[in-house]
Amino acid sequence: MLLLVMTGAMFSCMHGTIRFITGGATSVEGLHPFEIAFFRNFFGLVVLLPLIFRAGFRSLRTTKFKFHFWRSLLQVSSMLMFFSALKLSALADVTALSFLAPLFTTIGAILFLGEKAKIRRWIALIIGFAGALIILRPGFQEMNLGLVLVLTSSAIWGGTMLIIKSLARTESSVSIAIYMAILMTPMSLIPAMFYWRMPTGEEFAGLFVVGLLGTLGHLMLAQAFKEADASAILPLDFTKLIFASIVGYILFSEVPGIWTWIGGGLIFSSATYVAYRESKQA
Prior knowledge:
The chain is built from twelve helices and no strands. By secondary structure, the chain is mainly α.
């Protein structure tokens, strides 16, 4: 439980740092989100190097390289969209909609893996996506490109989680993290080259913080799910919205509206219920 709360704090601080470096919520032109995505993966790889050397090259032995490759490619695509959304939209709104990812995973499992869903799970999914509509409020406010990018990013990340679930059956969390860093760094460099500019010293410091927080957050998240049943600790994942609201207020004077809290609460409750049902069936 403590690890999951710490993960939420780290990811929220990382997202706030990304929004700050991109110049989001200001008129200052910062680094392009694609370049930040590359440095997030590059510094993440640097942070993981001691772990790689300690685990030895035996940790790279795998019979599922194809799954690692596609997982990394999908995750890079999701990351590019998510980082772009952080530049364009309020931190709390982006965080609230990101809770949709597990719901997309459930839909993917039903459609592609043949998992069966009973009426209660379908109702939970409908409630979750109704929460997304409450945040977006199409017809009542102008559709924000950043929020559309979050929705697409969450759908892709949902597919990525299906692959991670498959890999976790035979691969260690260390192996999954190492392959993620090794493959995603060159993958994210290609789109970053089209928007490249040399970061300033202050921006380099911020980029290192992004890589450090992101890597530590993923390791803590993996360990949290090893230490306890997912359904027991997932309710604490909602602290991400609280932390995101605090970071958004401190850095950008953003105050989440009531619709963000209502929609985010519905999405999160739905995702938590689905995880509980899956755990109970397992």
